[in-house]
Amino acid sequence: MRTLPGWWLLCALVASPGAAAPPPAPAVPGAASVAPEVQLCLQHLKPEERDRAARALGPLESVPLYRVQLEVEPKERRVWGKVQVELVAKGPRPVTELYLRLTPNTRSRQVTLSGAKLNGKAVALEVGPEPTLQRIAVEPPVAPGGKVALEVAVKGTVPKAAPGAESLLGAGGLLGGGAKGGADDHGAFSATADVVSLVGVVPQVPPVDDQGQPWAGPQGTGDLALYEPAHVLATLTVPAGWAAHATGTPMGAVPERDGRVRYSFAAAAVRDFPVLVTRGYQSATATVSGVTVESHFAAQDAAVGKRVLKYASQALTEFEKRLGPLPYTHFRVVQAPLSGGAGGMEFPGLVTVGTSLYRAKQDPLSMLVGMPGMEAFQEMLDAQGAGMLAQVGAQVGASLERTLEFTVAHEVAHQYFAGLVGSDPIHDPVVDESLAQYAALLYMEWVHGPEAAESLRNEALVMPYQFFRMAGGSDGRADRPTGDFDGGELEYGALVYGKAPLLHHASRKLVGDSAFFKALRAYVDTYRFKWACKACFTQELAKASPANAKALTRLRTRWWEEAHGDEDLGAADLQGLMEAMGGGLGGVKLDAQTQQLLEQLLPQLMGQ
């Protein structure tokens, strides 16, 4: 196993012959007093954002620093290396223990840690109090203001991606349905022939509560984790012909003597550090307000990959106008074979979008192959004739292209919620997901107009709730931890992605556009690089519209804590849902026999 290189030599390493040397770094304010490693990381922040980050986080040298060295062997699905983390003890009490979280270990031990050293001294690692956590006793305790340095060796075996991971529905069922206990991470830690997704392989220190206990980890539904803002310096070594993707400023790609290639990245003030390795990918880039936007995609999906770049650039342009600048200099969208119905996954500075969405439009019905009930559905379409089949295919294809654009906008919005404005994605998923979903709807309004936004409101928010109810699901409280959704991803999607975002629509109607958008910008500015609470956006709305303060609180209670979905969103019938999907199937009405068959198939189509 290799040792970590001298990180103060990183500039020299990435400037070695064969490396793609980065442009000269802008001057860092107070650079003479900032360590070289931190200076490297700060290249990831726009120059004007460094002071804002320091005001929110304190001296930037006190931000946690991770040094990551990983080597990947895709053919064998192996990853190994070392991770060091340096922390400044904060809070009123001495640090007596540290935790590291490994989200791939939610259900089984896929990543192991060994050789732990605390401040240079060998220490024991303990599993618990949950499978994704490793505990290290800190002896003697470190007083507030003191430094803690922890080093561990990392080794993992990456599981093969779930069967059908590149199909529209994978193993999950419509809209991410399926019973609780299905896919735990939507393929975040998995491998196919050309993509190795290593999300969660870097062990990170989780946030802790007032008693010093770590926040809850992944529950098998929803997101995986989120962390305190941290700096990261990473080298990722892969075989020739493969490429590494991660958050941060690219510091170069250096050929090794054995033919492999070492990629380096430097990231600043990020709440997670995803890693992906790909083969045969192409890329396209654009620039938006000082941000290099990159789209990475399989060669066969080049046309869609370039549209994804367009959608991401448009979304970032609109969000920067109204939510404030993205603080980072680089933002990446990477095609990945997500499973369980997931369209995308968000991380600071990098998001993934499911391969299924890249390939769905070209042959939409084929993307449904293998889904429960699809064989009977295909027989029904065949019985209706070629005209019906063509109309259904065209309608589904158009809907899926809208879904692709909406999904990209949703993932870009996550750069603000909860990438920049932090919130607990496990205990309070309704906070960031509802804002990302509504921001994506606003994007559609700003770019395509109110009518398109209204259509997407019905298609992306209202219909998932109504499908859920038609499949036998019960309305309920949206504001609850991810582990409390007994109906799994289908219930989670209906309530958190469908019903909950419409609180913001109702609030906007109440206070008016001027106050709403003033409050939204104030929310981002106030909690930038910090943690927000469940009521924080409502509080900003109340400041912008004091006369509606009590009514805003009542709205949040109604939409997030109570069960008024049928009353607020309307009950649905199958014909109405089909007509809502872009004005009906080309004007085709369902006959009684077809409608009855679809109603019988619907629970199967949803994975129930």
How is this structure best described in words?
- This protein is of the alpha+beta class.
- 35% of the residues lie in helices and 22% in strands.
- It has 17 helices and 20 strands.
- The protein has helices at residues 10-14, 36-42, 50-57, 302-323, 355-359, 374-384, 386-413, 429-448, 450-470, 488-499, 502-511, 513-526, 536-544, 549-561, 565-569, 574-580, 592-605, and strands at residues 65-73, 78-88, 95-101, 111-118, 121-122, 126-127, 133-142, 147-157, 189-191, 195-198, 230-238, 242-246, 249-255, 261-270, 275-279, 281-288, 291-298, 330-336, 344-347, 350-354.
- An 8-stranded mixed sheet has the order 5-4-8-2-1-11-14-13. The chain has a 5-stranded mixed sheet with strand order 16-17-18-20-19.
- A hairpin with a 5-residue loop joins strand 6 and strand 7.
- Helix 7 packs across helix 8 (429-448) and helix 12 packs across helix 13 (536-544).
- The two termini are 47 Å apart.
- Residues 1-32, 170-183 and 581-588 have low confidence and may be disordered.
SSE order and pairing:
Layout: H1 10-14, H2 36-42, H3 50-57, E1 65-73, E2 78-88, E3 95-101, E4 111-118, E5 121-122, E6 126-127, E7 133-142, E8 147-157, E9 189-191, E10 195-198, E11 230-238, E12 242-246, E13 249-255, E14 261-270, E15 275-279, E16 281-288, E17 291-298, H4 302-323, E18 330-336, E19 344-347, E20 350-354, H5 355-359, H6 374-384, H7 386-413, H8 429-448, H9 450-470, H10 488-499, H11 502-511, H12 513-526, H13 536-544, H14 549-561, H15 565-569, H16 574-580, H17 592-605
Parallel strand pairs: 1-11, 17-18, 18-20
Antiparallel strand pairs: 1-2, 2-8, 3-7, 4-5, 4-8, 6-7, 9-10, 10-15, 11-14, 12-15, 13-14, 16-17, 19-20
